[in-house]
């Protein structure tokens, strides 16, 4: 279990120097208690208690008898793009849209042997069927980044890393946007602490917290939750961003935030964060949220920045849900800097996207987008920004 108080880091693996340096700025909120434990098959489970929790510090023990964990998946390289694909066949067995009485993310009960032994506010645990991990690189081994960026025929690599589930609430239904401000703050604290912990694992090169919301997105559990992936490589999306920074210059994010904060597409702005519809939005609903100062990841944010983010992010999500009479499906993706490189260039950014282009219509990725990556926008970003501002104006948090 990773733990830190100001300047001391303790980790259950031998950390690499670079990863520890990346995590060293983490400031932990003393109002939010953290309780680490283990599940019956040895997976890590961490409880994060709200600042105003009604729970005691005691936690139930997971007494289930579980099958051994699946073997770590294998990555294969696509020769045509250089991208890596993790072939994780064990994921075929995961639960799909279970009834409330068999919710695997609800607290365990006599009729529901779920993944979490007892009641909780926020819980984080290792995925039973991960896309990456549970194996890690050898402690102290040199980074594999340079090798992974090479291209060759039928190249393979073990899918080392970690995949975690972040449960926002013990309730069966909901999303991040349905939580209280206190609960939202707890989730953000969990993201920050887990980003630091996962960044310290051997072989991890990038950490990605995200939430998929809605069946239209492909969600298989209605329980309010997100995930965190710790990749053994720098993702293709970030590689393209690095190329743009090289072409534009190291001030890309500073210039972007300055321009958008004074432009026509701003949705919300606070002392530390601004949300806006991007100039070249691909999706019918697309919002970017960035900090005003440069921070590479959530672990580098201050407590004050996380406090503001909790209420501002809730206003944004609830406003998006007020665009139409029914909740809007989305992917909320926290793009963070790579663990070992370009941390002074890549700024933390939320990219929230939804395929919903009307109350009863979705944008499907057809020939041009899916096959060629050549996007066609259905709504002007300025018009969508105006609609979102109107909806957000009706929100109270």
From TrEMBL:
Protein name as catalogued: Galactose-1-phosphate uridylyltransferase
MF terms (GO), sorted A to Z: nucleotidyltransferase activity
Signal peptide residues on this chain, from the entry's feature table: none
Enzyme class: transferase
Catalytic activity reported: alpha-D-galactose 1-phosphate + UDP-alpha-D-glucose = alpha-D-glucose 1-phosphate + UDP-alpha-D-galactose
Matches recorded under PANTHER family: GALACTOSE-1-PHOSPHATE URIDYLYLTRANSFERASE
NCBIfam families assigned to the protein according to its UniProt record, in alphabetical order: galT_1
């Amino acid at each position: 279990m990773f733990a830190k108080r100001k300047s001391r880091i303790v980790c259950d693996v031998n950390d690499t120097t670079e990863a520890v340096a990346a995590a060293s700025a983490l400031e932990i909120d003393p109002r939010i208690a953290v309780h680490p434990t283990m599940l019956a098959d040895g997976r890590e489970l961490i409880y994060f208690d709200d600042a105003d929790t009604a729970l005691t510090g005691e936690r139930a023990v997971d007494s289930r008898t579980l099958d051994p964990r699946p073997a770590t998946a294998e990555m294969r390289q696509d020769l045509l793009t250089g991208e890596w694909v993790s072939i994780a066949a064990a994921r075929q067995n995961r639960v799909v849209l279970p009834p409330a009485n068999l919710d695997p993310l609800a607290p365990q009960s006599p009729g529901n042997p779920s993944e979490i032994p007892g009641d909780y506010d926020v819980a984080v645990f290792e995925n039973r069927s991960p896309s990456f991990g549970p194996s890690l690189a050898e402690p102290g081994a040199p980074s594999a980044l340079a090798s992974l960026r090479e291209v060759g025929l039928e190249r393979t690599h073990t899918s080392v890393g970690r995949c975690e589930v972040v449960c926002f609430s013990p309730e069966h239904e909901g999303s991040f946007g349905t939580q209280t401000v206190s609960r939202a703050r707890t989730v953000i604290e969990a993201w920050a602490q887990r980003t630091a912990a996962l960044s310290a694992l051997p072989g991890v090169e990038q950490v990605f917290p995200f939430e998929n919301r809605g069946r239209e997105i492909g969600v298989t559990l209605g329980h309010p939750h997100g995930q965190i992936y710790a990749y053994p490589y720098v993702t293709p999306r970030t590689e393209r961003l690095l190329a743009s920074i090289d072409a534009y210059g190291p001030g890309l994010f500073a210039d972007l935030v300055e321009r958008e904060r004074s432009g026509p597409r701003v949705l919300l702005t606070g002392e530390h964060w601004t949300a806006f519809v991007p100039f070249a939005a691909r999706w019918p609903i697309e919002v970017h949220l960035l900090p005003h100062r440069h921070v590479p990841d959530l672990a580098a944010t201050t407590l004050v920045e996380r406090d503001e983010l909790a209420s501002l992010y809730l206003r944004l999500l609830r406003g998006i849900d007020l665009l139409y009479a029914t909740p809007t499906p989305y992917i909320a993706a926290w793009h963070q800097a790579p663990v070992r490189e370009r941390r002074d260039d890549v700024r933390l950014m939320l990219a929230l996207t939804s395929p919903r282009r009307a109350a009863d219509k979705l944008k499907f990725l057809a020939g041009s987008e899916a096959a060629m990556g050549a996007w066609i926008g259905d709504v002007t970003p300025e018009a969508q920004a105006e609609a979102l501002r109107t909806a957000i104006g009706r929100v109270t948090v």
